Structure formats: C-alpha cells, structure tokens
Amino acid sequence: MNKYRLPFNLDDYHSVYIFTHIRPDGDAIGSSLALGGALKLEGKKVEMLCADEIPARYSFLPGIKNIKDYLPPLEGKGLAFVLDCNDLQRVGYFQGAVSKFDKIVNIDHHITNDQFGDVQFVDAAASSTGEIIFQFMQDNGLQLNKDISLNLYVAIASDTGSFKYNNTTPLSLRIAAELLEEGVSPSLVGRKLFDEYPLSTLLLLRDALSTVRFDSDKKIVWVNVYEKMLQSNKAKSAELDGFINYLRNVEEAEVGVLFYHTDQGKTKIGFRSKNIDVAAIAQSLGGGGHARAAGVTIPGKPETVVQNVLQAISVKLEENDFLLPAK
Ligand SMILES: [Mn+2]
C-alpha cells in the first residue's frame, strides 16, 4: 500500500494543471477528468489540458467541457500532473509549458516511459493510467464519487478493450467492481464507447478496408488510409481509432498495421499484434507504445515508408521473437 503516496504535501499547491497526450483516448481523457474531479473536491484550482480535439464519443463524460486546449495563466506555485504519456513530447504544444512547472508528477503505464518528471508513478504492469489513478487517489486520501468513478471506469475499460485484452488483471476487475458499486453503468459505457459511431466512421471504414493488403504468409495485414478519404467522408482522424483491430483480428494474422498518410508528407502508423513485441519495432523506428499496441510517425513517400515498416516487421517475425512461446 501507499505505493503512490506523493513525497510532498499537496497542501503546498493551490493550482494543479493536468496534462495528457495528443490524439487522446479514453484512458487519457477519463484519467484526467477523474484526477481533476478528485482534486477539485479537495478545493484545488484545477486545469485540465489537451493539445488536441476531444473525440465526440466522450462527450457524455462528466466535466468533459472543462478540458482546455490553451494554457490559462498560472498564479503562484504550480503542480503539473502528466498522465498516460511515455515522454513529454506526447503533450504536444504544451511541452515547453510543462517543463516550467515547479513540480511534475509523471503517471503512466507505458513500458517505454522515459521517466521524465520529479515524481514517477509508472507501472507497465498496470492495464491503464486509470488503474494507477484509482490507487493514487486511495494512497493520497482523495475521495471517489459517481462522476469520478464513471471517468475511471471509462479509462480502464478503454485500455482493456472492455476487460478483454491481455493487460486485464484481477486488480483491473477488482477496481472496476468498486467503480460499479459507486453507481457506474457498464452497459451505458459499453454502448457509448464501443458500440456507437457516426455514419462518417462507417464510410471511412469502408474506404479504409478497400485497401486491405497482406503478405504471402498472411502474417501481416495492413491498410493505407489517405487524408483525402477523411475529407471525402467528412471524418476526423480520431475516427480511425479501432480500425486496426479488424486487421489484427484476422485469424491468420500476427500483426495489423494501419498506415495513415497525411497531406503533410508524414505517415502515422499504428501497430497491433497478437504475440510479437510491436513496441520494439515502433521504438526502432523512433516511436513507442505497448508490447501489443504501438505507433510511430515517419516522414517520407508513402510507398517507401510502407516498404520500410513491413521490412522491419518481417525481420522481427523471422526472428521468431515472440512475447509468449509460440504454440
Ligand atoms: Mn493508457
């Protein structure tokens, strides 16, 4: 217990700024809202910041309207929390601002976390940052309520794929049980978070899947999404989240890759695997992430980028370098 107890007095800070990563997901958003809500109950002046648009599917979350994409001026000493970021670059254009805070608390569960900050609460065995926030709140005497519980549940459900990914542990489910006891409705979260999508998402999925390719062993399955596909369907890039699962879920496949070629000459690449360490592949290309879910952005011609990335994956597959022994 008290693994996540702050080594300084929270009372020393009146203003608390909570930062999270660009292209925010449910864990980033839910964790920020939960911690922000809990610190507000303590009488803190809380700012929650994200340097990117919040996807519409999270609009049902309590407090979501309070997340800002600009930095309100700081009065007096400031405490910064940085959530769900493996390095400070992940906060996007807030990076310079974060480094000026008196104290930075780094709360994260990415194996590639580079230990930035004055206090590190990093646990790669945690399913989600939300799971760490729940324990952080307990260890520092912060109170739960229904709204905070909903945000934490969304954080954990989001990163565990509704408690079905490999990172789901007995602790994840024990915490989820406590959140349900606070009044969280799992069916509401399931519908809002996993089932529903706007028509633009379905049309974008149709276009993305029309580009499906696979290697000769069907071990790597990939799609190429171009920015013009988003424009013609009036879709936002956040709507691509989850598409990659269609690729990784192919029975024969080991790795799914989504290439998103932007008009700025950069390709954003998402990896999902069953049993191979894609964080290592992403890292070797300058990115990061988790063993089975990672990403990287690479400049260059789309065809060249695709070729280089597929080559890096093939090498890894040929090495038979599996996370768990192959059956
Ligand atoms: Mn996360």
What does this structure look like?
By secondary structure, the protein is of the alpha/beta class. The chain has two domains: 10-195, inorganic pyrophosphatase (n-terminal core) (Alpha-Beta Complex), CATH 3.90.1640; 199-318, Diaminopimelate Epimerase, Chain A, domain 1. The protein has eleven helices and twelve strands. The chain has helices at residues 26-41, 95-99, 129-139, 146-159, 170-181, 186-195, 199-209, 227-232, 243-248, 278-284, 302-318, and strands at 15-20, 45-49, 67-68, 78-83, 103-108, 119-122, 213-214, 220-226, 255-261, 266-273, 288-290, 293-299. The chain has a six-stranded parallel β-sheet. A hairpin with a 5-residue loop joins strand 7 and strand 8. Helix 1 (26-41) packs parallel to helix 3 and helix 4 packs across helix 6. The longest helix is centred in the C-terminal third of the chain and has 17 residues, at 302-318. The radius of gyration is 20 Å and the shape is globular. It starts with 14 loop residues before the first strand and ends in a 9-residue tail after the last helix. The relative contact order is 0.10. The structure holds manganese (II) ion. Manganese (II) ion binds at residues 27, 84, 109, 128-129, 159.
